[in-house]
Amino acid sequence: MTLHPVYGHEDLRRRLSESAAARRLPQSLLFVGPEGSGKQRLALWLGTLLLCESDPTERPCGRCRSCHLAADLQHPDLHWFFPVPSPRGSLTPEKRREKLENARFETLAARREDPLQSEEPDRAAALFLPVVEEIRSRASRRPAMSSGSVFVIGDAERMVPQASSPEAANALLKLLEEPPPDTMFVLTSSRPGLLLPTVRSRLLSVRVTPVGTGTTARFLETEAGLESARAQEFALRSGGRIGTALRLAEASEDPRDPAIRFVRAAMADRRSGRWALAASFAPAGARGGFSDMLDLVEAVLRDCITISVESALSAIDPDLIQQLPGVRSIAPDRWVSAVSRVEQARDAALGNGNPQAISAVLLARLARELRPGESAGPERLRPARVSGAS
Ligand SMILES: [Zn+2]
Description:
The protein is an alpha/beta fold.
């Protein structure tokens, strides 16, 4: 289960589910509300509801095959699009579309790995024309397993990155004018005034209000494991918006947290998560903050050695044991080898290598040390992910 449960929005959810049960929902909706108020999460909830296989009165049931796939962001008929940065370099249209799709897949993979991650939105990201073409081609296909398909398109106002190129919005307009049968579009926007009026006129606006500080605090305590006082603080500062509160909490995180995330990515199943993490580092400047992070990774790994040696004791570092499930099932000598891998990476960082390349290699090597099933052999890196390697 990847997506966190929806908190709040009770009235709106009731209205939406009643309309859906009565088959009164229009095919195109626009969720409007402040940034961080949960519009995309709510849109995914509605998509899950529409595709649920259970009795209409129970939807979304959370138990059927469709609900499970949707919760894990794997449902073939629930399509989630959002702005991604433009790929660099001069590319053929096909290559550009492929790169934009890869960027989207990587974001989805990172979401699966850490559902609560809430990064500062990338202002350069947009819904470029090839993405809208991808949406159109998907919308023209038959649903894979359900009787219909649902498209969630987040931050839809970023469909027109420049006023001079309204092609993306016009391409979407054509789709909204004649939506394929059994296809539902849920667009979200915190700045609906930036949508083309023609696009906006095709959509039924639904106002999404912040869930409030009480609900936000409850979410932070229950889902993000924050202490009560911290949860209250971030809930207040966020103005009762869960997404904003998560971003604030992330920004003030424990300095060791990125290192723990790094080790967790190495221990996880998904290579795509490791690629996404490696790509999240700056492509240059390894001697600065990146070297500090490697020091912290080494410190975390040394704590893991202690935990794995003294596995009979329970109270060494309960926090770390909780944050790195499986830490005790890995033999101490594997952790020791992992530490020596970090030392090699630190040498490379001192030579001012590319942090993206260094972390990609390090994550692959750590994965081989820490994951018994990981195949030996050369690191399987996709060179395209690592720009400007030196
Ligand atoms: Zn269901």
